Amino acid sequence: MEQDIILDFQHVSKNFPGVMALNDVSFQVKRGEIHGLCGENGAGKSTLMKIISGVYPYGNYEGKVIYNGQELKLIGSSIHQAGEEGIAIVYQELTLVPGMTVGENIFLGKEPTEMGSITWDRVYSDTQKILDKYKLDVHPQDIVKNLGVGKMQMTEIAKALSENAKVLILDEPTSALSEAEVTQLMEIIRTLKQHGVTCIYITHKIEEFFRIADTVTVLRDGKVVTSQPTKDLNSQKLVQYMVGREMKERFPKGNRSPGEVIFEVEDLHAQDPSKSREILNGVSFNLRKGEILGIAGLMGSGRTELVMTIFGEYGHITHGTMKLNGQALSIKNGNDAMKSGISLVPEDRKRHGLVLIQSILQNISLPNLERFASFMRVNKDAELVESLKIARDLAIKTPNLFVPVESLSGGNQQKVVIAKWLMSNPKILIMDDPTRGVDVGAKFEIYKLMNELAEKSISIIMISSDLQEVLGMSDRIMVMCHGHSNGTLEMKEATQERIMTLATGIS
Amino acid sequence: MDISTLGQRFRRNIQTYVIIIALVAIWGVFAIVTKGGFLGPQNISNLFRQMTVTGFLAIGMVLVMVTGGIDLSVGKLAGFVSVIVALFQRDVWFKLIPNQPLLAAALSVLVGLMVGGLFGMYQAYIIAYLRVPAFIVTLGGMFILNGGILLATGGKTIAANQPVFSAIGQGYIKAPTNWIIGVGVVLILFFLMFQNRRAKIKYGFELKPIIQDVLRTAFFSALILIYLFVVNKFNGVPIPVVILAVTAIIVSYMSTNTRFGRYAYAIGGNREAARLSGINIKKEIFLIFTLMGLLCGIGGIVLASYVGYGTIAAGQGYELDAIASCVLGGTSTLGGSGTIFGALVGALIMASLNTGLQMMNVAPAWQYVLRGFVLVLAVVIDVYFKKSN
Questions:
Q1: What pLDDT, on a 0 to 100 scale, did the predictor assign at position B12?
Q2: What value of ipTM does the predicted structure carry?
Q3: Local structure of A428: helix, strand or coil
Q4: What's phi and psi for A484, nearest 5 deg?
Q5: Contact list, A378 vs chain B (CB under 8 Å)
Q6: Does the CB of B277 have a partner CB in chain A at under 8 Å?
Q7: Which of chain B's residues have a Cβ under 8 Å away from the Cβ of A337?
Q8: Could you report the per-residue pLDDT of A453-498, keeping only the tens digit for each?
Q9: Span A249-341+427-438+452-507: which CATH code?
Q10: Helix (H) or strand (E) holding A452
Q11: Class for the domain spanning A2-243
């Protein structure tokens, strides 16, 4: 039936110089359904979303987009037009103003006014109504930068919803969320569906499609590979569609035998940088040589704070000890940590890991310039030789090392961050959510790389919000809850349920 | 190398080319309007000398802006240094060490560098370690130095015209000495080119065709020799131009080939990533503002020597010229990118506009208006090119 289709893509193509980003894409989105969209990075998902949102305006692409029975004709100059038509997008990168309150953010650009002055009471009461309706646990007067990523995401969704959206597009909404928050998000999406809102759901976490999507469309190299009901699919088939080849397993098998304990943390307590709040209260664990230790826990359980504190760049240690090879460690900053052989691949690679406007070469060598410096001068030839070698080892896909990092895909960017830290020959490599925002194929390569590193006797601490990843990659799993270590599980005893029990601290 | 890669290189370096094209265009227009007078030996000689004081400030300002900072005190600091140096010339040396102009000049330079360096260090400490925004610290510095200038001069003009000291800003290196130095520099350029190629072979890189390297080196050599040829028809190479060139080469080398320089760009590009890469940001910022102070010191010494006295208006507005030069030369106001070479070409454009408009007898009020428009226009063109890329 015609009227059941809210969005109909008809032979949509979009060319960039040298790349066919979308190639004759045709599929339909039914009104009121949750429509999953998946594909590896570069498959054309974001290009497609940019067409619906008007970033690439009408006439900038070939083919037709029929929206609500009419051809969608967005002009490029107005970002509000898509919103007025009822199409709302929640981007992967959050678009909130950190210094403003939740209410100010939600009404940013459309503040209700009376005689030219903003009626703040209405802003906050309307915000409260939206938050209540969808059971969002945020206060309208909260300053956004004080919220966790999960709550920021909720705010972002509330912001999109306040426009009475007919179609809500969620681009990687769960990449930074903990399991509990994901569940909460799924509830919100189902509530929306009951209100008749159509959802387009983009994610790299394919399990989520089976939890929530009615239909899944798979894009590969700018083409639609398939578009079919979720119930006819399974995750293996889906991965196969995405990568175009059969992928037997998501996690490569490593062949390693962890050795003796090299790093020990005993009853670590720490305060946040302003010394106002206790962020760690009793963390103990140890790390063996050539082992991958997974750290699981909910958002806000102190995982990132723990590794940043170990690295010397976050908290003030108030109690407890860290020992490397039996010797007490005193790390005041990142430089000390590196000298002791501890490297950190930070959680947010764009904010903390990379200088985006600089080249791959400059990024890789940044923490390692000391190696190439004699007296004052940096030996640029040696720098290039070593960087090339490591870039090749990690299979960073690029024509040369002089390209700015910002032009690389997420997976390749992550490899640059890893390369940068590997060059300093660490004994311990801390990886905070190493596969966040990375596509399936690149994930697999990063996993393989982690196995190889562990086989070379490097010990890895891996934080992850993806339980399957923790279970698939770790030798042991340390679970954190409210700032303390709530237990360490051996691989053979670990299950999703046991991890969640420890993480929520129920038992 | 085929056409398409040439095209790519051109696009990548568009910023450098745009500003050079702008310079050539401005010179062309002035040459036509002044019937060639603008490109006469005396004018070219003056033009380069006029840009020197701003040039020293712009060199430091590039690094400051690359880290994402700004320094509003540089003009007044150079002015203050020039006044202090003049004061020592008038009141101190001639009592302590009469009839020793060489020693007096050397000590004057030392005093100038110390004053600049120490004030730079004071501001650097507050900016880097007490974390007060550079804009505020240097705005305060501007006021303090303004007061300092008034206190030191007592509102009067102080003469600074001992012969050896005067040579720093007013002297020339004449032919044939400058030809010998010039040819020497050309030989060094070629030597470095071959050295560079040898290092590339040692590390097993593919070499660019030799003709490309030779053409590049020959181009720069030709510029140096043409410049010598032109200014030798007047008095020779002004000494301040030589000092500026040497300073520029040193700082430019530091900016690309030392950890100090590389860290500056990383901090401006992404402060957090730089911090987590183990870079001591406080120390780096401290060093950069201290270097800025030292460069103000050099600028102040040249200024005192060139004008021959210290006045209450010394250095007035130079900080804005320096910032404009950097922006013209492609330095990002957001930090992370910018080159010394670009900033100097920017300073040359500012000086060219100054001289050219004066030669055309344009009223000072309109000179300001035109310079303002050129600055904004240059950035508009730059933004346009970046967008179309």
A1: 53
A2: 0.78
A3: strand
A4: -130, 160
A5: 257-259, 262
A6: yes
A7: 278
A8: 999 999 999 998 778 888 889 999 999 988 899 899 998 888 888 8
A9: 3.40.50.300
A10: helix A440-455
A11: alpha beta
